[in-house]
Each structure stands twice: as structure tokens, then as C-alpha cells.
Amino acid sequence: MDRTRVKICGITRPEDALAAAQAGADAIGLVFYPASARAVTIPQASAICHVLPPFVTVVGLMVNPEAEMVRKHLEALPLDLLQFHGDESAGFCNSFGHPWIKAVRVRDAGVVAQAEEAYHGASGILADAYDPDQYGGTGRTFNWGWLPERPSRPLILAGGLNAGNVGDAVRRVRPWAVDVSGGVEDAPGIKNAALIQNFIREVIQNHETD
Ligand SMILES: O=C(O)c1ccccc1NCC(=O)[C@H](O)[C@H](O)COP(=O)(O)O
User: Fold this and answer.
1) ipTM
2) CATH number at residue 75
3) Is the pTM of this model over 0.90?
């Protein structure tokens, strides 16, 4: 059966990873961007991965990293997927021989289509809100009308989603997956299990009523 996948991003604590898995999340995101309030170290990430049950995808998120940093994290951690959330080139993203997705900040109608062209090796394109001062985790939505009606590869919708608007997002955009961080938190990096459950319930209900 077709369904909308869910990624809970910015996990910083093992108990939140477990809560996400128990609520039915398909993926968790670990932020390896030191400037983020949700950044985790390799030992913290390792502790999170250790408690995670099987069949939950672990996504390692980086922003304009040095190649050495990417290699170090791939060696140390069981990362299923890399998420490049900065201004990385396609050549750089492809150079690790590891599956990856590319995040883009959507400021007009052409951005996702251009990224689909430019980032050929990407497993998917994550569409996030544009903010000139922040690469992600803005807590803000953007104009979903700027997204292509028929994306050429899996589209992951992010940016300001929460239990109150994700149902609408699923019905209108019909993305491959939705990604949330601030909308399921009590404070940056501190997830709330009830909010995660509400979010995932809304995704399921709204997909099923299609
Ligand atoms: O979450 C962060 O702090 C962050 C910082 C820099 C780059 C990306 C970051 N998060 C990326 C994500 O995948 C978030 O889930 C996505 O930006 C949506 O965040 P939110 O609007 O808070 O749901």
C-alpha cells in the first residue's frame, strides 16, 4: 500500500529516537552541524543508534562539511543515508559512494526542478523553507504551490510542519515523505513523544482519506 513516509529530524537523545520508532517513524535525522542547537557528537549519535530498533533509517545531516568530516562520520556510525543541507555540489555529494539526499531552500517555483536536474545522484530532494540566515530548522513553512506537481524523484517536504498542518500538506503536495523537527519539540533538540504520535497519526489519516 502506498503511504507517506515520516522522518523525525534533529534527534539528540536516545529516548527520543525510541519514541520516534515506537510511533512509527521511518527515519530519524542526526544533525552534524556544530552551529545547530540540535547538533550531536559522534559519541552521542552512537548512543542513539545503539537503542534504535531495526528498519528505522538513520540519516546523517551535514551543512557544507569537509570531505574528511563526512568520511569520519561514515566510518564511526551506521548511517544509512547522508543529507546534504548546505551549498554542496553534486560532485561532492556523490564522492563518498554512499546514498544521499539533497536539501534545498525553496524561495521560488524553480528551485526543486533545478535541483532535480543538478543533483542526479540524489535518492531524493528535501524541500525546506528559505531563510537567508539559516540553513534549516527554521520552523517556517513556504509556498507549497512552488513545488512541482510531478516531481521526477522522491520529494521530501520539510519546513514548519506540525500536527496541525501536516494533514493539509500530505493532501495538497502528496510528497514521498514529510520531515519535521521543531513541530514535535518542547525545545530545540528535545522531542515530545505525544507530539510525534500526533504528527504521525495525522500523516496516516490524511493519506488514507485520499
Ligand atoms: O534542525 C536544525 O537545527 C538544522 C540546522 C541546519 C540545517 C538543517 C537543520 N535541520 C534540518 C531538517 O531536516 C529539519 O527537519 C528541517 O529543516 C525542518 O525543520 P523544522 O522547520 O523545524 O521542522
Assistant:
1) 0.97
2) 3.20.20.70
3) yes
